Amino acid sequence: MIYCSDSTFKFGSADLTNLPVLRYAAKFKKPMIISTGMATIPEIKQAIAVIKKAGNNKIIVLHCTTDYPTDVTDVNLSVIPRFAQELKTLIGYSDHTLGIEVPLMAATLGACLIEKHFTLDRNLRGPDQAASMTPAELGMMAEQLKQVPLVLGNSIKKPTEREKKYIPLVRKSVVANTNINAGHKITAADLGIKRPGTGLAPKYFDTIVGRIAKRAIKKDTLIKQSDLK
Q1: Which of 20, 86, 176, 186 is the most exposed place for a label (fewest CB within 10 A)?
Q2: Same domain, 59 and 146
Q3: Cis bond upstream, residue 135 (ω within 30)
Q4: Which helix (DSSP H) or strand (DSSP E) does residue 164 occupy?
Q5: pTM of the model
Q6: DSSP letter assigned to residue 67
Q7: pLDDT tens track for 10-24
């Protein structure tokens, strides 16, 4: 996305193998967006090589299926992460399906740019009117796409700030399943697991079994380390 500007060259899928044109355009050193409908990976790599050899590394490759509208069985979004791994360029997606679901899915797979046809009236003549969005639909898709980075977040798994308040409420603790006398060697039958989660977590259950109670522990009382020898 950092490459896009009003001076960006966009090449449709039909020109992916038009290497003389790609070579010529690359010399201007402007960002180049190339669609890949009908193409194989070797053809795409060849086009990229030609552009880079001409001294231009500002390339966005769009995964694309040339069919209007494209059936969902032909979308093959799994290509997007493969492109990212093999092509070493920015990757986007040019969509010809109906609706906005597929572009949103493409964005979650790493597409940095979404191309979608739009029309003022689907009743107009033309081969791709049926697969085009109205301006209102396009606006809706754009708003939904803005949510994708927020939903994806980062790869760190930890409690959110909002989750933390639920931990003591919904997690569980080890409790006395019955009245336990001081000096009693605790067995599994003596213990239960109940809310709240403010005591010893159930993951310590097995380490409590076999310990000696320092003091009397009433039924349904949270087990504490200080209760045990």
Answers
A1: 20
A2: yes
A3: no
A4: helix 161-164
A5: 0.83
A6: -
A7: 999 999 999 999 999
